[in-house]
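Regression test attached.
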Amino acid sequence: MNDQITKETPKLRPITFLAGACLVLLCFLVFDVTIIAGYKENEFRKSSTSTPTTFPTPHILVQEPADKSNAIYEDFSSNKNDWGLYYPYGKLQIINGKLILQSNPDYPFTIGISNKFNPRRPKYYLQADFSTDTDSMSSFGLIFAISKSVNTFYLFEVWPRSASFHLMKFDSANWDELIPHSKAELRPYPQPNMLGVHFDNGNIQLYINGDLVSTFSDINPLQSKDVGIFTSTSGYRLIVDNFFIYYEK
Amino acid sequence: MDETPKKYFDYTIEVFVGAGYIFLLCISYMLCIVIYYLSFFQEGPAPTNVFAASLPPTTPTPHFPLGDRQGYEKLISDNFIDDRYQWGYQDDTSKTEVENGKLLIQSLKENTIAVAECQLCAIGDQSYFIQADLSTSLATDQGFGIVFNRLKTQNSFFFFEINTEARKYYLYHHVSDNWSLRTSRDSNLIKSFPSINTLGIFVNGNDVELYINGEIVDSYTESVRSFQLGGFGFCAGNSGFKLIVDNLIIKTSGK
């Protein structure tokens, strides 16, 4: 008995074509999704590199003064308030509506101070926008309760890179850390950070970008009223804008 | 008994066609990945502060051609043979003399500056360069230098000062009784007593460049302000010595 094996003529079945068509459609789908996802990511990246100019103005003060007539504003359109250096090293300029402060390499820090722009009462709030010209690891901050005659002041210092801050008190030659290094949400370079301080006879409230980040009560408060800005090292230029002060009776 | 013949299916072609489809799929995926990486996954430019691009360079660049000085004409050259430009200042705490080919300035009151202003140096409202040789009669730890942008009505001026003992320079703004320091730095270019230091300033709109012994040491910009306005002169920062000035040269752009 012989087994009879029949060989069928090979032919492509419709299911093969259908599977192939599905694969091709899948290819197009993946291609489209890839392109769209790429565009979306690209747009997101572009929007995330915002600059200080995107910050909305005018600002709304974190703490509105009870009497708005006591609020004063420095837009740095000119140096009408006679901003200069507190210590004899560094450089301070008013350029294109901003204050530019920089330190010298040979000296530890630089402070900019105004002869005219200061609160005229012991209870006050001050606020300004800070950014830098380069992405620096260094710190900057607000100085308040400055006494030129006895060389004392408070320093609210922030490090945007490490998202931290502290509060220092300088008494002639001694630094005292009132609030130790703490974490806070600070915007990365090149975005500006808005720093604010409310001072009420030694009761100090610190604000970063509108949020209260810490408070401190100094039992031996400094009473002077001059205010200023601070750069810790050389290698970058501090850019300051929208300096507000209001004071309460 | 007849047996149904066994069917033998040959899938060779379908296997090849299927493999072709899968190969096509792989190629498409690879193409997608390549396009994605080349088009979108590249590192974007590093974020920059757009405003900072409008700032002057951190290293000052001289805009006054110290070498050939083309385009600038000499307006005034004073070797102080006589007092033809009428140097002086209206106060009783300073003394100004033109003597032996030098301009001598002295403060007569402790902790008070002495300014000698050029009364007849009409520069007008144009960019200019001032240069002079300055020295002191005695070794002193007090400063001296050039006064410019002096506006009598506002009682204000800028003072480019050097201290030869500290070997530092300063740029002050003075208005009424207030002093405001704008820039200060150490400089090895400053020579100590009894050497002569050649100081220069180039004033152009709201920019001023500071020169010591022929080299630019700093520049300063202040929006809105025009440094070209007002008078100029020389200043001794305190009493106890005479400031000696010689070889004054003023060049202007003629614009």
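Expected vs. actual: identical. Helices of chain A lie at 14-48.
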